[in-house]
Amino acid sequence: MNIDSTIMQGFNYLRYVDDIVVFCNTIAEGRHILLGLSKELRRLGLGLQGAKTNIISVEDHKACIVPATDRLEKAFKEIAAGVRLKLNPYFDEFTDEDLSEIKEEINTIAVHKVFDEAISSSKINETLLKSCLTFMAAAKDPYAKDFVLANIANLPHLTSYFGNYLCRCKSDAQIKKCIIDFLRSAENVYDWQAMWLIRYIGRENLCSKSRSLLRDIFSNRNHHDALRALCAVILGSRGDIADQRMIKDAFEAEASELLKRGIICGLVSMVTAERNHFLKYHQHDSWSLRIACNTIFRS
User: What's the rounded Cα separation, in Å, for the pair 280 and 14?
Assistant: First the structure.
C-alpha cells in the first residue's frame, strides 16, 4: 500500500497498521484528506469504516480524552456535597465518615448522572459511555439496559461493552428477545458481533427460539468457524441430547479444527459412555484435538 508516500504528503499524521490520525488546520482540509484517502483505498479494493471515521475539532477531542474517572469523581463530589447540605444545612460537623453508609448509593447516582451526560449530547461521548457501562456491569445495574438494547445495531463497534454489560444483568426475557430478534434480522452483518451477543443466550438452558437460532447458525457454513464453534459449545452444554447428537454427527464433515474443538467441548454434558466412545475414536486425529478430548475426558 502506497498510502504514506502519496495521500499523506505534506501532512502530519500517525498510523498504526490500518488506524490513521491526520492533523489538519481546518475542517475543509480534513474533508479534502478524507476524500483523497477514500479514493486511494477504493482503488486498492479497501474502504473506510464509517463508524470509526470522523473529523473532530481540537476542543471536542480534548473533551473526549478527559479521563472518565475524573468526571465520575467530580460527579460523586457534587452529589455528596448536595447530600451533606440536605442532611445538615446549618452545621459543619457532617464529615466524610458520615457519608460512608450511603457511599455506594452516591456512587450509583454519580454513574447514572455521567451516563446520562454521555448519551444526551449530540454526539455520544463514547469514552464516558464505556466507563459507565463497565462500572454498571460490575454492579449488575440495569440502568443502561434500554439504551444498550436500542443501540445494538447503531453502535456495533461497542458490542464488546454491550455484550459484557448485558451478561452481567439479571436474566431477562426482554433482553433475550431483543438479542434473538437482532440476530435474526438483516441488521446482523458481523459474525464477531453475534459472538458477543450469543454469550447472553448461553447463560441458561435454551428455550425453543434460542435453540432454533443456534442450530441455524451452527449449520450455516457461511458463518465464521469461531461463531459456529461457540454455538456448538452452547448447544452441547445448554441444550438436550438431540442438540448434542446433532453437533456430534456434524463432526466428520467439518474441516476446521477450531470448529471440531468447539464440538468436542460442547459434549461435556453428554451421557458419559456415549461421549467417551466418541472421544476415544477422535483423540488421535491431531494434537489439538487430543488436548481437547483429554480435557473433556477429565471433566
Answer: 53
